[in-house]
């Protein structure tokens, strides 16, 4: 068996954390350079083609107009470039030793999935919930239908050819809205989407979880995710993928780097097989290739260091993440033998309810808060079948309070970076001005090594 | 209460994302900010097709339309959106502003703002250039304007 999943499994077996960028450019030549730079980075890497926002929404006309007018796209318009162009872009880059995943954030991705087999691509990510609620106004029921057909397309490609690689699908459910979603719900949605994929015939999966604001809580959540996957995903090959923080990022390069370092350590300690990195320009703009390579290489170095470190003393405390996730999963699965139907019913009943999510199919009766240590708590559980927290105070929150919670991680890591460099730096005056435009000259942007 | 801002100047405001932009924290934040200042807010959410925005504006006749985009396509989506709005006689003079992160390469050097204003936006509040303080000043000027 070849493919994305087996590459990650083989790397894990030899003790290597696979690191992966979030990368996508409108221009095929630049996309190719980005993939080549990822491939040759000093790290165990897999490649990423991130699609642009127009392609994600099926607005190919707008994507084509932008390309023709030479305007900037925030990703690769895979349905606009002719298939031959994409095959050429990948030729000599993608192979068994360097699998490439398509990441897209599309609620109705049939046009995208229909293309993948002919392009030699077999790995993607998302899910009917995680690519619908945070990414579209599409009714959840339609997204479920579309995602089921997409899984069928991948399965048909696999079963139709002996040479086909085993299709790989990753859940994005561990990442809902990027921030301020308590981990029990993230773990539950990640597992439920994996069960949806399995029911649709896929057998090589990964389950995502995004770093939140407290390393101890994250370690507990990753352990809960692994335990639930082990209990429920029988008959599949799966691994866990950790995302470096997906919320408001530190503004200083030092703060961003410290946050990325923490993600790499968390991945190793918690047994994740793959880490999706961010870069030091996350808070400001789309990163350059060089910044991505630097993020991959530093993450690999930190992971390597962590692996050699003596096993840490602190055991992961059980604050109830597993129990909460298990209760949510069981309640949802009890609604229908069909996982897709169960998910639709669960949102309609408010059994699953994402805090701060504006999508019309989300009940919007839950609220969350961060405590002084960055741990996420429910301030209101709405109709979810879990225990309300004693300190719950409802869902109402002011704009300043919201910004404060959204900026907790940014603030913490920017301050930490400042403290570390306080001796050698002029007094702290805040991070008022973000760095100016792309700071690297053109040749470096396209992946030349950093000085 | 200082001059009873909310009673005197509460306005009908439409907050909207753009066609291609899925981000919503920006929209949630802006809605809260405007409500706290006593305005009545309709939040259209993310991924808003141009036609939906125009239809909602024609129906509601808002005193202000606040467009927010951070995904890097705001410069393109914004120009298309404003030409649809200005192309509609009912909405020729409705105040419409845009803000966020409008390109993919970092802060604006002023050229995006010039083009967006020429295309019909009343004001442009891009992160790193003109930000929230300027927006609040602008709101205040609207708040104190006497509605005819
Ligand atoms: C959370 C997040 C997400 C979540 C969003 C969940 C959701 N439903 O909202 C998820 C994971 C789903 C996501 C997806 C994507 N994201 Co995103 N995301 C972020 C992130 C990390 C934080 C944004 C946030 O929550 N901010 C909090 C809110 C309150 O603040 P804000 O949005 O920054 O807005 C502030 C100001 O700009 C201002 N403001 C905003 N609008 C307006 C309007 C007016 C009138 C005024 C006055 C002020 C104003 O007010 C706010 C408070 O100061 C940012 C990076 C960062 N900032 O750290 C990237 C970021 C915005 N995402 C980005 C991108 C590109 C995407 C994707 C296209 C995927 C990709 N290619 O990486 C998709 C979107 C798909 C689509 N169709 O658009 C880029 C945009 C690049 C750019 N502009 O140069 C960023 C900057 C990351 C990066 N460096 O690449 N994302």
Automatic annotation (TrEMBL), chain A:
Signal peptide: none annotated. One of its GO terms (biological process) is anaerobic L-glutamate catabolic process. It comes from the Bacteria. Transmembrane segments: none annotated. GO terms for molecular function: cobalamin binding; methylaspartate mutase activity. Residues 442-451 have a biased composition (Polar residues). Gene3D superfamilies: Methylmalonyl-CoA mutase. Keywords: Cobalamin, Cobalt, Isomerase. Residues 427-451 are annotated as: Disordered. Pfam families: Met_asp_mut_E. The keyword Isomerase applies. The keyword Transmembrane does not apply. This is Glutamate mutase subunit E. It comes from Actinacidiphila rubida.
From TrEMBL, chain B:
GO terms for molecular function: cobalamin binding; metal ion binding. Residues 10-146 form the B12-binding domain. Pfam families: B12-binding. SUPFAM superfamilies: Cobalamin (vitamin B12)-binding domain (SSF52242). It comes from the Bacteria. Transmembrane segments: none annotated. InterPro entries: Cobalamin-bd, Cobalamin-bd_sf. PROSITE patterns: B12_BINDING. This is Methylaspartate mutase sigma subunit. It comes from Actinacidiphila rubida.
């Amino acid at each position: 068996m070849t493919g994305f999943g087996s590459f990650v499994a083989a790397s894990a077996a030899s003790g290597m954390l696979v690191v992966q960028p979030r990368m996508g450019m409108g221009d095929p030549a630049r996309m190719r350079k980005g993939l080549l730079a990822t491939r040759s980075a000093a790290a165990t890497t897999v490649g990423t083609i991130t699609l642009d926002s127009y392609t994600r929404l099926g607005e190919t006309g707008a994507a084509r107009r932008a390309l023709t007018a030479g305007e900037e796209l925030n990703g690769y318009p895979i349905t606009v470039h002719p298939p031959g162009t994409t095959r050429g872009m990948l030729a000599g880059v993608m192979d068994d030793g360097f699998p490439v995943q398509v990441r897209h954030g599309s609620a109705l991705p049939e046009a995208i999935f229909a293309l993948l087999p002919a392009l030699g691509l077999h790995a993607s990510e998302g899910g009917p919930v995680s690519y619908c609620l945070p990414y579209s106004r599409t009714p959840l029921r339609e997204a479920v239908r579309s995602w089921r057909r997409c899984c069928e397309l991948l399965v048909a490609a696999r079963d139709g050819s002996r040479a086909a690689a085993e299709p790989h699908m990753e859940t994005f459910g561990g990442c809902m809205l990027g921030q301020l979603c308590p981990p029990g719900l993230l773990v539950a949605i990640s597992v439920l989407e994996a069960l949806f994929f399995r029911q649709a015939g896929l057998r090589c999966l990964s389950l995502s979880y995004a770093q939140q604001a407290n390393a101890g809580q994250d370690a507990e959540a990753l352990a809960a995710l692994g335990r639930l996957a082990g209990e429920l995903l029988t008959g599949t090959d799966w691994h866990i993928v950790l995302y470096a923080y997906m919320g408001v990022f530190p503004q200083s390069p030092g703060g961003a780097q410290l946050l990325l370092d923490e993600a790499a350590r968390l991945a190793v300690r918690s047994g994740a097989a793959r880490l999706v990195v961010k870069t030091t320009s996350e808070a400001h703009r789309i990163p350059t290739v060089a910044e991505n390579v630097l993020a991959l290489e530093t993450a690999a170095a930190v992971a390597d260091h962590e692996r050699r470190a003596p096993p840490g003393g602190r055991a992961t405390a059980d604050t109830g993440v597993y129990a909460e996730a298990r209760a949510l999963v069981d309640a949802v699965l009890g609604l229908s033998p069909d996982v897709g139907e169960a998910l639709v019913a669960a949102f309609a009943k408010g059994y699953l309810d994402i805090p701060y999510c504006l999508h019309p199919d989300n009940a919007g009766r839950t609220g969350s808060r961060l405590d002084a240590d960055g741990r996420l708590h429910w301030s209101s559980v709405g109709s979810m079948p879990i225990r309300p927290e004693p300190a719950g105070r409802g869902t109402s929150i002011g704009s300043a309070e919201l910004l404060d919670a959204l900026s907790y991680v940014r603030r913490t890591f920017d301050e930490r970076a400042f403290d570390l460099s306080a001796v050698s730096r002029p007094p702290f005056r805040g991070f008022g001005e973000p760095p100016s435009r792309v700071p690297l000259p053109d040749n470096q942007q396209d992946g030349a090594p950093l000085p | 209460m200082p001059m009873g801002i909310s009673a005197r100047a509460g306005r009908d405001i439409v907050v909207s994302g753009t066609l291609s932009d899925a981000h919503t924290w920006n929209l949630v934040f802006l809605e809260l900010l405007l409500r706290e200042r006593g305005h009545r807010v309709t939040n259209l959410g993310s991924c808003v097709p141009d036609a939906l925005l125009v239809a909602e504006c024609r129906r509601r006749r808002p005193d202000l339309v606040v467009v927010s985009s951070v995904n890097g396509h705001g410069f393109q989506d914004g120009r298309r959106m404003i030409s649809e709005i200005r192309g509609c006689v009912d909405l020729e003079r409705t105040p419409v502003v845009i803000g966020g992160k409008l390109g993919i390469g970092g802060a604006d050097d002023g050229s995006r703002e010039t083009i967006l204003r020429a295309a019909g936006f009343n004001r442009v509040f891009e992160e790193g250039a003109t930000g929230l303080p300027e927006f609040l000043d602008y709101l205040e000027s609207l708040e104190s304007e006497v509605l005819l």
